[in-house]
């Protein structure tokens, strides 16, 4: 009904504009008529822009309606929050640090939400992070919450950011996600997803998938954001901070952060041993964070998130101009890790999948958060974890299906080849010329 109303108003305003444009040019010879025409045109354009903004807000309200029509067995809606950029959605309501305030004209749902400025002031999304922090998202939680998490049955929060990934969700990722409860059993699983500004059917696919299973619906949390500003890494930082905070709030013991745009089915989706090995290493407190490897025939692709002096990845290979001129950009390095190698320490890594021991984050690194203002959003977060004494590593046996590595047909051969062998030794070779490498 709302969308039909906006459509009719838009058609009426469009007809008015066409009428004005069709007016005889002689009208401008009469100053009073010309002035009225100018003022009328300004008014019509203003109202039409307001209608366009209203249309976007009503679409968001419609999305909220769709979400609340899909309910879990207890009758509670699946949507946990709707995050919007504009804090003054006059017809739907508005967001603030104290949550969502309803407007009187349109009935809406009182789900909590976050005010996001989205524009560059100070350091990127700093205000958004502050707004999240005000709600306890991604920040230190109380001792009571920590104790409850330790005493509760083991819960793994499976989290991911989604935008325009509808085809990959249907083809690859939703079947993989659907297999996780069995792969991680006897641990319980809760799905947390943050979707923003998709032009395709990503949101609809997520809603349908979550609502299609009563167990998923009982624990899932979906966050939908519209009109987010900032750079891609700033938006990802906001997403990951929201998901991290959500994992804390549901008292999860572990967080499995996944990329949701992978196009290949990873080996662990059919063989539970790699995921269980990684989870076992976290249970034994051998590691606090373990990140994934790439498939054997592919290069390790997420070099921007990687920080390791031993691997030669100790600089920002996309934004550090000085080091890029001296050592090359991310495409200049080819890294391959033998899946038989033992886990090894790094200062930062993601590569499409990372598993976090949330108890360690709560106790020692509650003030750490993602920040995409200056570099890859994972790096500031992981470096903060390292400074707090947490152990981060790459688990070579945990192979995922994301990314292809550098497009060698386009960018040419690498300048440096790095290999992590099966025994854990590292070999770095500089490519001086075709067929002749020099060990570094």
Textual characterization of the structure:
Strand 4, helix 5 and strand 5 (188-196) form a beta-alpha-beta unit. The protein has a nine-stranded mixed β-sheet, sandwiched between helices. The protein has helices at residues 2-21, 31-69, 126-134, 143-151, 166-184, 202-211, 214-219, 232-249, 273-283, 321-327, 358-364, 378-387, 408-411, and strands at residues 79-84, 93-96, 99-102, 155-162, 188-196, 221-226, 254-259, 289-293, 333-337, 344-345, 353-357, 392-399, 416-420, 426-433, 436-439. 38% of the residues lie in helices and 19% in strands. It folds into three domains: 2-19 and 32-69; 78-263, no CATH class; 285-440, no CATH class. Helix 1 runs antiparallel to helix 2 (31-69) and helix 5 (166-184) packs parallel to helix 6. The chain is globular. With 440 residues, it is α/β, with parallel strands linked by helices.
Which features would summarize this protein structure in a list?
alpha/beta; 440 residues; 4-stranded mixed beta sheet; globular; 13 helices; 9-stranded mixed beta sheet; 15 strands
In short, what is this structure?
It contains 13 helices and 15 strands. The chain is of the alpha/beta class.
């Amino acid at each position: 009904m709302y969308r039909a109303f906006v459509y009719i108003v838009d058609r009426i305003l469009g007809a008015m504009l066409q009428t004005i444009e069709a007016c005889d040019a002689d009208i401008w010879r009469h100053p009073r008529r010309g002035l009225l025409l100018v003022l009328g045109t300004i008014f019509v354009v203003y109202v039409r822009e307001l209608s366009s903004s209203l249309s976007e807000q009503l679409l968001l309200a419609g999305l909220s309606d769709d979400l609340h029509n899909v309910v879990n067995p207890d009758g509670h809606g699946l949507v946990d929050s709707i995050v919007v950029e504009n804090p003054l959605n006059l017809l739907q309501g508005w967001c603030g640090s104290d949550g969502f305030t309803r407007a009187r004209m349109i009935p809406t749902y009182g789900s909590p939400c976050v005010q996001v400025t989205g524009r560059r002031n100070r350091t990127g999304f700093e205000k958004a992070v502050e707004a999240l922090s005000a709600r306890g998202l991604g920040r230190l939680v109380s001792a009571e919450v920590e104790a409850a998490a330790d005493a509760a049955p083991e819960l793994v929060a499976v989290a991911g950011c989604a935008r325009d990934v509808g085809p990959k969700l249907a083809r690859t990722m939703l079947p993989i996600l659907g297999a996780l409860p069995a792969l991680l059993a006897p641990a319980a699983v809760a799905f947390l997803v943050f979707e923003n500004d998709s032009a395709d059917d990503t949101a609809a696919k997520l809603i349908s998938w979550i609502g299609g299973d009563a167990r998923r619906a009982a624990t899932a949390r979906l966050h939908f954001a519209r009109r987010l500003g900032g750079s891609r890494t700033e938006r990802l930082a906001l997403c990951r901070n929201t998901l991290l905070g959500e994992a804390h709030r549901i008292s999860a013991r572990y967080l499995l952060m996944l990329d949701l745009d992978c196009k290949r089915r990873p080996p662990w989706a059919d063989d539970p041993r790699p995921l269980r090995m990684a989870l076992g290493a976290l249970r034994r407190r051998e590691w606090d964070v373990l990140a994934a490897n790439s498939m054997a025939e592919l290069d390790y692709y997420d070099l921007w998130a990687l920080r390791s002096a031993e691997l030669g990845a100790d600089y920002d290979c996309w934004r550090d101009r000085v080091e890029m001129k001296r050592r090359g950009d991310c495409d200049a390095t080819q890294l391959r890790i033998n899946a038989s190698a033992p886990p090894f320490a790094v200062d930062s890594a993601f590569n499409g999948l990372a598993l976090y021991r949330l108890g360690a984050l709560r106790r020692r690194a509650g003030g750490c958060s993602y920040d995409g203002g200056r570099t890859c959003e994972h790096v500031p977060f992981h470096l903060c974890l390292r400074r707090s004494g947490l152990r981060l590593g790459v688990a070579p046996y945990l192979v995922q299906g994301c990314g292809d590595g550098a497009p060698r047909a386009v960018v040419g051969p690498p300048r440096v080849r790095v290999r992590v062998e099966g025994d854990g030794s590292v070999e770095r070779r500089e490519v001086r010329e075709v067929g002749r490498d020099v060990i570094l």
